[in-house]
Design the sequence.
C-alpha cells in the first residue's frame, strides 16, 4: 500500500533541513513520530499521488496461461483495464434509480478457445476499492450471447438494497461463450461443439477461474468466499456449478432455473404447435382463462386479492372444461373451442418422453396456474397477440430453435415434423451436457456449500414444477434431513418469469440471506418477508408478504390489513 497520504502532506510541507533542525532538539522518545514526519514530507515533495487502486488497475496483468483455468482453453487475455470513479445513487429516468457504485477497476477480457473456429468467451470483472475479500458471479439469461457486466443488482433485490459491488464484492460475469448477432437466431452458435459445451457449463467455470486469478493478481489474495447468483438461464448455470464444480462456490442462489433444459424446450415446441391454427387463444380468450383460474383458485388462501397463492391447491381446483363453447365450435371470446381446450390441457399436463434423459428424467412437468393475463405472460410466451401468435411467442421461438440448431443441426428443418424418438441418442447427449437435474449434491454439501432455490408459481416461460421436482429428487437422493442442512426452496406466487407481478411484493435481499447462512451459520427462516417498494428514494414500503418454504403458501389470517405480511401465515397444505 502507498504510504503517501495526499490529504495529510500539506501539514508537513517543510524542507528536510527544517525537519532535521526540529528533530535535533527533541528527545529520542519521539523518534518514530519524526521519522513518520520525514516520510510524509518526502511524499509531499513528490506532488499529488494517484490512488493505489488506480495504479494497480493500470498495471494489471494482461494475460493468463491456459493452466490457470481448470478446463481446456488457450488462455485468457485482459483487453482493457479501466479505473472507474465512484458514483452516487441517482435517479436515471422517471421512476428508476441506479444504485451507488464505489471506485473500481473494470477489467474486460476474453478466454481463447481450443478450437480456433469457436467463439471466444468474453468476461467482465469489477474490482472495487475497498474490497471485502469476497467475489460474486452473476449468471446470464436466455441463450446468453450478451456480456453480463456484474455491476447490477442481485436477482429479486429490493430497490434500497446495496449493489453487490457496493458491498465490496469483486463481481464478474460472462457472455456464455458466444456473441449474439442481430438477425441471427440466438441458438445458431450450437453448430460449434466447443461453443455448445461452453454454453452448457464450461464458460462459467472458465470465467470463474480467470476471475479468481485476476483478483489474486490485483489484491494479492484470493477471495475468501465466492457466491453465484442467477435467474432463468443463470439459475440453470448456478445449479450446474453446484453439481459439476462443487468446491468452487460457497453458496448459490438459483431462481426460476432452466433445470431440465431439453425437456423444457421440447415442451415449448409442443405448446407452440398446439397454439397453431384452431388451438390459438387470442388476447381476449387468455383474459377469459385468467378470470376462470382466479374464480377457482384466488380464494383458496382465504383472501380474494387477484393472486393464486395456494399454487398446489389450484391444480386440483381448476378445470378448463366449463369454458367450452356449445358444440365445441369457436363461438366467440366468451368461450373456448375444443381445439383451444385441448391446447390449454396440454400445458396443464406433463410432456411424456419415451426414453430416459440424464438422471432418469422421462417427463417435463405441467405449467403453473395464475397470472395468465398479466404482463409478459401468455401473450409473450405462449400465444402471442396475432392469429399466427404462436410463431412469435417465446416458448415456440426458443423450443423450435433448440430443435433445429441443438438437436437436428439444420436451420431449415421443420419442427412440426420433429419426432423425439428419431433423435434419441442426440437428445440424451444434449441432456447430459445441458440439464441441471443431477440430485446428488453430496460433494457440494461436503464442501460446505449452501443452495437457495426460488420458484415463481405464475411463471409461464417454463414450469415451476420442474424446480419442485428437482428439490424433491434431492431430498429423495440425500434424505430430507440432510437436504435441510444446505438446501432451501422458496416460492413466490403471482409473479412472472422475471419475478414481477402487478402490486405483488417480491423484493428480497438474497445476498444477505446467503451471507448469513455461510458466514454466520444462520439458515434462512421458513418465512421470509418480501417487499413492494417505490423505485425512487426514499423507497417507501407499499406492501409486504411472506415468502414461504415449499410446499407452504401464505394464508390470510382472516383479519388484518392485506397489504402487510403480518396478516398471513405460511401454511403447509
Sequence:
Amino acid at each position: 500500500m502507498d504510504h503517501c497520504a495526499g490529504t495529510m502532506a500539506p501539514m508537513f510541507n517543510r524542507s528536510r533541513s527544517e525537519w532535521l533542525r526540529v528533530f535535533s532538539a527533541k528527545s529520542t522518545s519521539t523518534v518514530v513520530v519524526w521519522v513518520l514526519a520525514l516520510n510524509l514530507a518526502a511524499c509531499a515533495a513528490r506532488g499529488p499521488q494517484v490512488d493505489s487502486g488506480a495504479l494497480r488497475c493500470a498495471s494489471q496483468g494482461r494475460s493468463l496461461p491456459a493452466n490457470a483455468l481448470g478446463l481446456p482453453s488457450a488462455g485468457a487475455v485482459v483487453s482493457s483495464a479501466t479505473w472507474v470513479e465512484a458514483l452516487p445513487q441517482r435517479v436515471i429516468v422517471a421512476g428508476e434509480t441506479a444504485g451507488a457504485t464505489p471506485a473500481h477497476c473494470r477489467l474486460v477480457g476474453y478466454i481463447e478457445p481450443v478450437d480456433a473456429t469457436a467463439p471466444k468467451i468474453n468476461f467482465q470483472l469489477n474490482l472495487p476499492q475497498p474490497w471485502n475479500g469476497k467475489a460474486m458471479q452473476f449468471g446470464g439469461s436466455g441463450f446468453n450471447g450478451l456480456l453480463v457486466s456484474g455491476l447490477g443488482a442481485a436477482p429479486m433485490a429490493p430497490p434500497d438494497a446495496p449493489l453487490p459491488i457496493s458491498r465490496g464484492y469483486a463481481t464478474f460475469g460472462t457472455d456464455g461463450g458466444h456473441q449474439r448477432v442481430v438477425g441471427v437466431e440466438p441458438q445458431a452458435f450450437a453448430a460449434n461443439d466447443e461453443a455448445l459445451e461452453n454454453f452448457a457449463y464450461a464458460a462459467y467455470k472458465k470465467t470463474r477461474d480467470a476471475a479468481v486469478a485476476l483478483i489474486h493478481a490485483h489484491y494479492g489474495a484470493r477471495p475468501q468466499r465466492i457466491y453465484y447468483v442467477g435467474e432463468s438461464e443463470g439459475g440453470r448455470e448456478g445449479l450446474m456449478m453446484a453439481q459439476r464444480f462443487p468446491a468452487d462456490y460457497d453458496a448459490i442462489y438459483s431462481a426460476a432455473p432452466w433445470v431440465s433444459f431439453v425437456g423444457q424446450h421440447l415442451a415449448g415446441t409442443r405448446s407452440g404447435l398446439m397454439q397453431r391454427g384452431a388451438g390459438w387463444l387470442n388476447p381476449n380468450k387468455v383474459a377469459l382463462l385468467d378470470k376462470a383460474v382466479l374464480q377457482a383458485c384466488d380464494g383458496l388462501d382465504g383472501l380474494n386479492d387477484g393472486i393464486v397463492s395456494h399454487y398446489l391447491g389450484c391444480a386440483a381446483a381448476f378445470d378448463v372444461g366449463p369454458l367450452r363453447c356449445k358444440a365445441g365450435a369457436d363461438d366467440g371470446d366468451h368461450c373456448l373451442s375444443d381445439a383451444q381446450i385441448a391446447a390449454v390441457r396440454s400445458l396443464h399436463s406433463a410432456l411424456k418422453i419415451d426414453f430416459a434423459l440424464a438422471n432418469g428424467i422421462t417427463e417435463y412437468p405441467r405449467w403453473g396456474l395464475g397470472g395468465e393475463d398479466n404482463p409478459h405472460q401468455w401473450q409473450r410466451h405462449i400465444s402471442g397477440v396475432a392469429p399466427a401468435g404462436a410463431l412469435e411467442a417465446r416458448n415456440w421461438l426458443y423450443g423450435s430453435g433448440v430443435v433445429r440448431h441443438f438437436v437436428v443441426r439444420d436451420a431449415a428443418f421443420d419442427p412440426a415434423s420433429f419426432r423425439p424418438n428419431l433423435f434419441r441418442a442426440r437428445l440424451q447427449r444434449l441432456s447430459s451436457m445441458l440439464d441441471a437435474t443431477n440430485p446428488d449434491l453430496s460433494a457440494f454439501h461436503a464442501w460446505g456449500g449452501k443452495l437457495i432455490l426460488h420458484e415463481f408459481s405464475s411463471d409461464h416461460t417454463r414450469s415451476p414444477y420442474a424446480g419442485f421436482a428437482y428439490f424433491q429428487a434431492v431430498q429423495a437422493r440425500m434424505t430430507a434431513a440432510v437436504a435441510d442442512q444446505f438446501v432451501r426452496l422458496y416460492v413466490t406466487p403471482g409473479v412472472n418469469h422475471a419475478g414481477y407481478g402487478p402490486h405483488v411484493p417480491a423484493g428480497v435481499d438474497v445476498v444477505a440471506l446467503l451471507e448469513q447462512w455461510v458466514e454466520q451459520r444462520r439458515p434462512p427462516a421458513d418465512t421470509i418477508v418480501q417487499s413492494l417498494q417505490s423505485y425512487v428514494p426514499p423507497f417507501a414500503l407499499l406492501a409486504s408478504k411472506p415468502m414461504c418454504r415449499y410446499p407452504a403458501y401464505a394464508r390470510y389470517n382472516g383479519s388484518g390489513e392485506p397489504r402487510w405480511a403480518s396478516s398471513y401465515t405460511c401454511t403447509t397444505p
User: Anything to note?
Assistant: DSSP finds 16 helices and 18 strands in the chain.
